[in-house]
Structures are given as C-alpha cells and as structure tokens.
Predict the structure of Aldehyde dehydrogenase family protein.
Amino acid sequence: MNLSTKVLGREMYLAGKWVGSDRTIEVYNPQDQSLITTVPAATAEDMLFAVEEAKKGAQISANLPVHLRMSIIHKAANYIEERSEAYAVTIAQEGSKTIREARNEVKRCIQTLRLSAEEARRIHGETIPFDQSESGENRVGYYYRFPIGIIGAITPFNDPLNLVAHKVGPAIASGNAIIVKPATVTPLSALLLAKAFDHAGLPKKILSIVTGSGREIGDVLVTHPDVRMISFTGGLSTGEDIARKAGLKKLSMELGSNSPAIVLKDADIQEAVSACVSGAFSAAGQNCIGVQRILIEEEVYGAFKSAFLEKTATYQVGDKSLETTDMGPLINEKEAIRVEQWVNEAVDMGAELLIGGKRDGAFYSPTVLENVPEHCTIAREEIFGPVVLLFPVSNLQEAIEKSNDVNYGLHAGIFTKEIENAFSAIHQMNVGGIMVNDSGDYRIDGMPFGGVKGSGLGREGVKFAIQDMTEPRVVSFKLQNYGTQL
C-alpha cells in the first residue's frame, strides 16, 4: 500500500471534510493479521452531526443541475481509473479478494459510476391524461421524480468499493445526500471513493463516510427521522433488526442467499463445472450470489462430480497479492472457524466430505460435500464461505422444488440446451434472477439486482436504485375553456 493511502485511512470523510479522532479502529490484513492503518471510531455525536449537515447537503444536491451531477460523477470515475492499481491494492489488502479479483472490482466500480452519471439524464416523468375521469376534464398534468433527501447506506466487507459505489453513485445522480457507514473491517476502500468525489468537486455536506462500530453509530443512522431511506447490504438477521428499528422510511435490502445451480443431463458438463467452481469459490465464497447448492440430474451426476472435484483440486489458495492465486483467506479467523463448524456439523450428521475441509487461521480450503442432510445448517442458511453442496435429482421439477425450499431467493443458475427447460425454471424458480448456462454468480451493474423472501427488499442496479431514491410528485393544471367544448 502506498503512503498516501495509509495517511488517508486515518481520517473519515465527515460532511465533505477529512476528520481525525483520538478514538480509532485498527484495520488488519486478514491474510497475516498485519496492521494496515487505523481509522476514526466515530461516536453517536459524529453521526448526528453528519445527519444535520446532510440536511443542508440534500438541499444543495437537489439544486445541482443534472449536467453538474453528471460531470462530478464522471470526474470521480476518471480519478479512480487513473489510480486503479492503488485502489485494487487497497481492496486486496483490507479484504479477502486476490489482486486479480480486486482489479475486477475497481473496473466494475468505474462502470457503476459512469452508469450513474448517464442515468442522471434519464430521470423522467410522464404526462397523465386527467380527462380519463369526468372530474379531470379541463385538466392537464404530469409527474416529476424528485430526490427523497437523505439516504443512509450500510455496506459489507466483501465488495468494499463497488457496493459503496452502487449506493453513492445513484444517490448523487438523483440529487440526494448520502451517509455511508462502511464495514468496520474494510473502511479504506470507501474512504478512497470519497477521495475521488472530493477531488471531482462534489459540494460539501452531500457525502459522508462515517467509520466506526455499527453498535455505536448504526442505530443513530437507521432510526433518525430525517434519514428518509436505508440502503443496506448484509446478513438477514441484521436486515430484520434494521427493519424493526427504521420506522416509516424506505428500505432497500440485499440480504444474501443460498444460491442453487441446476445441471441437467443435456448440459455442457465442462462449461457447467467451470462456471460453478468459479461461482462457488471466488472471493473465498464470500459472495451473496455465490453457488452453494448444485442440483445435478442423476444421469450425469457422476461425471459432473468427478470433473468438479478435479477442477476444485487445481484451485490455488494462498497469498492474495500473487497473480497466480485463485483464492485468499476469509475476512477473519472467526468466520473461518464458523465455516469449519458448519461443515463439521454436516459431516457429523451424515454428509460426506469429498475434498477440502481444512482450516489454517483465516484460510479455509475449497470444500465439496455430498449426501448433506437437508435439515442441517449448511443446507438451509447462507454459508458465506468456500463450501458447495452436491445433490442428485431425478428431473428438472425436483431440482426446482429443492431450489425453492429455502428462505432465500437471490440468484440461480441452470445449465441446459433445451429452451423449454430454461423457461420452466424461469417461471417456477422463486428468485430475483436466473442465469441460463451460467451460474447464479453473474451480475452486471446495470441490471436490476435483488431477491425475494429472506434475500431482501427492492432492487439495486443503477437505474433501479434511482427509482427507489426518488419519489413521484404529481402536477395538475386546471384550465378554463380547455380543449374543444362539446
């Protein structure tokens, strides 16, 4: 990490100003527990100040002409692009991603911001035919979309730059103020995003990145009546807690999954294996749309399993900074121990460990299980680690029923050459997205992204986030002697 990143990491971005504190949180590299830097441990008073300043920032943002919003966001994207390697190194150091995965996240962040800038020009209303009602004769009108005000964003550790951009970019594009509470363990990437917007000339008070413990500052953000929307990405239990506390405000929540992939007997087995191995183990499995359950038609179960294990065995686990590394550590040893416990529970209940199952500190080897009892924790909940479960199924209908039989529904994948099979899955699977001949671990930043059931509320994806971050305002003109009098 270069020196400028270390210096930046010691301050948070409070209403457009870089602010330090005597109270700090240490940021560690999960690979070797080396100290990277410290960031301020914000207080409840800091968060209250951020909200008060954001009230002014919301007015400033709402009055920014669209061309200025676009220009600022494009300049921020350009700033990141010019320093992309430094951003990637920061992501790789503070989080779990390898340097190759981190570079890809930086590219996606730049795309997210540029999409946000372009969507700013497409916040449209439409005319309304008021005379569809007898009372509407002699009236004409339309609706605008207006910003809602202050948005509170709470972001996770697994995509510490791009998932912040998915909240900040649309918020600024739509004329709002936004306060971000980044994951405590990965705050540096969010601060680097603020650096880009600061350099781009974003007016003060519109953006805050408040670092600290969720227990101390999270409730202030969530419950404050002047915060009109909470955009949260994280776990189901935390999302449910936020929903109980938030009160009467908008909620957008992506809460994880237990994502299935279906492999039918007519599928290209090697294509399915390659996609599912990557989908299961990228980012050390800490991916809300990562493949967790693979349901394979019985006729090809043996062939798929053999090829999947062979491919898994080649996965290189180790130093995140090496170009040859496929997978790094989990975010900390505590999470690796949890994954280990869930796997051991499944094995104790009768599951068969086919490969992996080994932990070394925060590292956990790519792991494959079969014969997993459907009532054990790992079969029902989101593992958020490098573990995948294989299940034989007799036909597509059984695969669909098993896919739906969890309290999650974010993404799913199906591998088949028959279009009728694909459409059967599309219409019957209870998920937010279905990828055909791809694992569910596929997303572009312009598509609607979100789930059903325990996977969340609403949709991200720039255009769709802007819809949530704005509200329609109807305008009606009553005119005298309007139109032809009958």
